[in-house]
């Protein structure tokens, strides 16, 4: 957790790596609250919406996107060396996210599939999450990030206290929202294995949980087995093919299999 | 203009206020332009490769993640391609709701680009942040409108960035009567602000630069301004069924960029608001036509900087069109029996079959293609996505080549800014085209 409590009007910057930039964009959806936020922090660099540049150290940097080539790794390390607090922002940064799906393929093969005989023009490495390259101080999960949580984490950073990512399954929030269980509707949902904190955003809108916030550290095994039994999940998996079920889990969580480099 | 002995060296690394990473490189020696290029330097993300082996029912979820700004557009193109491959016909209600969603996408994206990304150039500031002090009421109006467009999207599909309820087959949650009322109230509440914002747009000054190119957009034979469906049309008289999109785009690869290039009848073509306006302006809502007149936008317009103004015209069109759709739903009601549970189709709600499907949808930055080939179990065998920004990159470079000699005697900083402005006028979305933007001058 952060060692230095930061002074008034911290210098804040946003950086994007391989991603869709949707999590940055969420910031602009704060509406006029954005003006309040800009009243307490100095945003000194935010390439997507600003031309201003900053050449001194940063108090807080938000890193969006996953790390997918050599150049990106070097750039990230440089940013880390200039930042007091580093926030992994959004699933691509915290988990590798959807970019991690490419790690299920042979890198050379998938590069050739997309770019043909010109594949060598492009440097492609397996996808890594930010904490597989540098130390991360705060995590904001989600694809995209959930704005109320973003505001909560920013408050914690400004107060110099840690933020604990909820480590209970999405089901806990889904029940409170009184949704009909997706299993009762006959489909397999990743809610029982996925970290809460999004207020069960997808099930609230009739879709399944895709696991974008990563898996809970300690899934309730007995309850999960209950679900598997009660709803014939194994039968369904057989129908779908085991492969498709694994793929569901891998959609956001594949990259975390890469060696944690900074721990070496 | 004497540029005989001119040397110039510009390198803009990571062009700002665009979506993604791109560089501009300019190299002039003794008045000869040796290099004037726009490079995409985003890390390749290989979405098309990653889709292989996945269920067609997951394609929307994954491909909406190509881009955060136009994720609703990607969703709609993806769904259209998937349904085409599966031989599934959406209901009339579903199609109307998708058109509403696309209107919201245009509103949300255009307001962001016109006022937060492009306008600072015209007002001589590096971003909207200095405007908070000097033009507080403008910034507040823009942020309020942005939030409102985001809010109506939240009501319709769960959220604007990576929509939740719009999937293959239809919608997992349909708006209730009170949701319709809410959306109408939110939009109606913006009417005055939109009028004010349009009058701000009339004050934006853009460089006088003209280069006629080929303009490509969806076209149709009805009175509707085509956004969700249509044939591929061009100002050079070409017309293709969407299935033949490859005949229209003719993709090729160049080592400069991690994005692919396209061309049709000439060396390059343009897609986006200006192309749509040039091809389909007669079908715009009457209020949008009036705004075009007020903003002095006339078809055919050959100034690419006016793309931002064409977006302002479309902003009014989509605003009025969305309200008309909403009022129509309110009057005729919504059939809730159409609410679906498809998930990844465990319930077999939509029979799978082998097939090849194409989605061609106008998104804020231009025509977007998704193409999937699936096997009899609905597993994706091949995928191809052609993104508006990719189609524009080639055109941007040809613009550069005409524009640079016209401004070469200006100070370097001014040349640099104008080239960046030109790139920004296209509202490039580089995450989409893998991501893009950065100006290099070489002296």
Major β-sheet of chain A, in short?
5 strands, parallel
Percent helix of chain A, as a range, is 25-40%
Major sheet of chain B = 4 strands, mixed
- Principal-axis shape of chain B equals globular
Q: Give the structural class of chain A.
A: alpha/beta
**Which oligomeric form is depicted?**
heterodimer
Strand content of chain A: 5-15%
Using only CA atoms, what is the Rg of chain A? 20 Å
- Average pLDDT taken over every residue of chain B: 88
Structural category of chain B is alpha+beta
Sequence of strands across the biggest β-sheet of chain A:
2-1-3-4-5
**With helices defined by DSSP (H or I, 4 residues minimum), what is the helix count of chain A?**
11
As a percent range, the share of strand residues of chain B is 15-25%
Which stretches of chain A of 5+ consecutive residues score pLDDT under 50?
259-264
Average pLDDT across residues of chain A? 86
Fold and architecture overview:
The complex is a heterodimer of chains A (264) and B (443). Chain A is an alpha/beta fold and 264 residues long. Chain A is 36% helix and 11% strand. Chain A has 11 helices and 5 strands, in the order βααββαβααβαααααα. In chain A, β3, α3 and β4 form a beta-alpha-beta unit. In chain A, α10 packs across α11. In chain A, 47% of the residues are buried. Chain B has 443 residues and is an alpha+beta fold. Helix content of chain B is 43%, strand content 16%. Chain B has 14 helices and 15 strands. In chain B, strands 1, 2, 3 and 15 form a 4-stranded mixed sheet that branches. In chain B, β4 and β5 form a beta hairpin. In chain B, α7 packs antiparallel against α12 and α13 packs antiparallel against α14. The radius of gyration of chain B is 22 Å and the shape is globular. The C terminus of chain B is likely disordered. At the A-B interface, α1, α2, α5, α8 and α10 of A face α1, α4 and α6 of B.
């Amino acid at each position: 957790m952060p060692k230095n409590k930061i002074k008034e009007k911290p210098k804040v910057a946003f950086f994007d790596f391989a991603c869709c930039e949707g999590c940055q964009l969420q910031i602009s959806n704060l509406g006029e609250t954005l003006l309040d936020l800009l009243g307490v922090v100095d945003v000194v660099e935010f390439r997507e919406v600003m031309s201003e540049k900053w050449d001194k150290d940063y108090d807080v940097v938000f890193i969006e996107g996953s790390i997918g080539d050599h150049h990106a790794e070097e750039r990230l390390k440089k940013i880390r060396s200039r930042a007091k607090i580093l926030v992994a922002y959004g699933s691509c940064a915290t988990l590798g996210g959807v970019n991690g799906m490419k790690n299920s393929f042979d890198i050379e093969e998938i590069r050739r599939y997309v770019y043909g005989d010109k594949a060598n023009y492009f440097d492609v490495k397996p996808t890594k999450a930010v904490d597989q390259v540098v130390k991360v101080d705060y995590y904001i999960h989600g694809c995209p990030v959930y704005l109320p949580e973003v505001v909560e984490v920013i408050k914690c950073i400004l107060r110099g206290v840690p933020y604990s990512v909820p480590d209970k399954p999405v089901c806990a929030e889904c029940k409170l929202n009184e949704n009909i269980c997706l299993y009762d509707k006959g489909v397999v949902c990743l809610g029982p294995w996925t970290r809460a904190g999004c207020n069960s955003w997808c099930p609230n809108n009739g879709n399944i949980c895709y696991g974008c916030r990563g898996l809970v550290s300690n899934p309730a095994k007995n309850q999960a087995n209950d679900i598997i039994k009660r709803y014939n999940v194994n039968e369904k998996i057989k129908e779908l093919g085991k492969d498709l079920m694994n793929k569901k889990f891998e959609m956001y969580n594949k990259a975390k299999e890469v060696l944690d480099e900074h721990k070496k | 203009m004497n540029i005989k002995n001119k040397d110039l060296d510009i390198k803009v690394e990571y062009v700002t206020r665009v979506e993604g990473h791109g560089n501009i490189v300019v190299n002039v020696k003794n008045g000869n332009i040796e290099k004037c290029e726009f490079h995409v330097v985003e890390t390749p993300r290989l979405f098309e490769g990653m889709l292989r082996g996945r269920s067609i029912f997951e394609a929307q979820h994954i491909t909406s993640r190509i881009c955060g700004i136009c994720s609703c557009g990607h969703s709609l193109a993806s769904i259209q391609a998937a349904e085409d491959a599966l031989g599934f016909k959406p209901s009339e209600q579903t199609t109307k709701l998708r058109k509403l969603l696309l209107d919201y996408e245009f509103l949300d994206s255009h307001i962001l680009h016109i006022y937060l990304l492009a306008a600072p150039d015209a007002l001589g500031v590096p971003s909207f942040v200095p405007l908070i002090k000097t033009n507080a009421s403008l910034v507040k109006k823009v942020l309020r409108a942005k939030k409102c467009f985001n809010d109506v999207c939240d009501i319709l599909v769960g959220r604007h960035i990576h929509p939740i309820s719009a999937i293959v087959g239809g919608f997992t949650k349909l708006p209730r009567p009170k949701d319709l009322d809410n959306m109408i109230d939110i939009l109606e509440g913006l009417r005055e602000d939109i009028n004010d914002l349009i009058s701000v747009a009339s004050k934006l000054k853009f460089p006088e630069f003209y280069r006629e190119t080929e303009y490509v957009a969806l076209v149709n034979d009805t009175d509707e301004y085509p956004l969700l469906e249509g044939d591929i049309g061009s100002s050079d008289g070409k017309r293709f069924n969407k299935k033949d999109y490859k005949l229209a785009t003719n993709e090729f690869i160049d080592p400069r960029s991690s994005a692919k290039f396209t061309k049709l009848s000439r060396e390059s073509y343009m897609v986006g608001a200006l192309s749509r306006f040039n091809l389909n302006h007669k079908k715009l809502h009457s209020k949008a036509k009036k705004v075009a007149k007020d903003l002095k936008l006339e078809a055919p317009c050959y100034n690419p900087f006016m793309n931002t103004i064409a977006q302002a015209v479309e902003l009014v069109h989509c605003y009025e069109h969305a309200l008309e759709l909403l009022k129509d739903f309110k009057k005729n009601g919504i059939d809730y029996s159409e609410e679906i549970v498809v998930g990844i189709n465990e319930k077999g709600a939509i029979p799978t079959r082998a097939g090849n499907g194409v989605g061609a949808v106008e998104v804020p930055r231009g025509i977007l293609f998704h193409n999937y080939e699936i096997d009899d179990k609905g597993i994706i065998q091949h995928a191809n996505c052609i993104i508006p920004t990719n189609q524009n990159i080639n055109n941007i470079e040809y613009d550069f080549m005409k524009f640079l000699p016209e401004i070469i005697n200006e100070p370097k900083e001014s040349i640099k800014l104008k080239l960046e402005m030109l790139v920004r006028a296209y509202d490039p979305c580089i995450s989409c085209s893998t991501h893009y933007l950065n100006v290099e001058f070489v002296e």
